[in-house]
Amino acid sequence: PDPMSTPMILDCDPGHDDAIALLLALASPEVEVLGVTTVGGNADLENTTRNALTVLEVAERTDIPVAAGCGHPLVRPLVVADHVHGKSGMDGPQLDPPTTEPVDAHAVDFIAETLAASSEPVTLVPTGPLTNIALLLRHFPDVVDNIRRVVLMGGAVGLGNRTPAAEFNIWADPEAAAVVFESGLDVTMVGLDVTHQALMGREHGKRLRPTGRCGAFVADLLDFFVQFHERVYGLDSSPIHDAVAVADVIWPDLLEAERFHVAVETDSELNRGRTVVDRWRVTGKDPNARVGLAIDGNEFGEKIVERISRLP
Ligand code: RIB
Ligand code: CA
User: Fold this and answer.
1) Is the C-beta atom of 195 inside 6 A of ligand 1?
2) What 8-state DSSP symbol labels residue 286?
3) How does pLDDT run across 98-138, given as a tens digit for each residue?
4) For residue 35, which phi and psi values (nearest 5 degrees)?
5) H or E segment at 200?
6) What's the whole-model pTM score?
7) Which of 40, 122, 251, 310 is most buried (most C-beta within 10 Å)?
């Protein structure tokens, strides 16, 4: 990474789109991945941690530490998204199991130690349920000074995807999400409104397949991921949700975004995990998040193909 690169930590639940988000970060000199932490979400913690190790090995970046975090939300039981990502959490690609192990430290301790050791504030990019981040803020309140900003994939101004009301990452651990949105940190919410414009499909995969092992891996990820979105949304492509969060760190002007107040529903069963975004500023509450509203999907897809093509 070049000396001007932004240090970041990816907290994720790979996950097809988490995997693409990680590869995008590894291919981009604008960011330096200090570590990858994992959380239960798309699949259980054992699977998401194994998948994170696998992605780093495919990219020949096993120098980057992986720390496993919370296997369950703060309060509620874990409900995985195997109907989307398959039993392994990353079905589709046929890969050998990783030869590496995560570090011994828990993700929350790993993030706190990494923040303390960094010479400059670190950008946190959570792309799964926010359990680890909420615990970090509660257990190490002083680290907030070392957090440059939080760019999270989650929520929606409009419709949800896990339920009509809520997006999966927020729905999975609403209490953790509430802690993050109420933290006073510089939070960017990359929600479904913008990620459903960031579509990639089999055509992108066809272009990526000959570019290397990572390109072929992403092509296999897309082939599987598209099957779900064809079935549910009738789309011939998939929103690469988590890569949009990383893209916001790499290309700060890529997203159209505005600051609004965002609150998280934690009481209602019907609206559990809904991000209530004060889009028309009717609550009088001060904005607490920068909310992604739009992105040029074609530009996004081309950038991802160009970057992933750089990898081995
Ligand atoms: O709702 C989409 C989000 O849920 C993405 O982060 C996807 O990986 C899943 O975690
Ligand atoms: Ca994810």
Assistant:
1) no
2) P
3) 999 999 999 999 999 999 999 999 999 999 999 999 999 99
4) 180, 160
5) strand 199-201
6) 0.98
7) 40
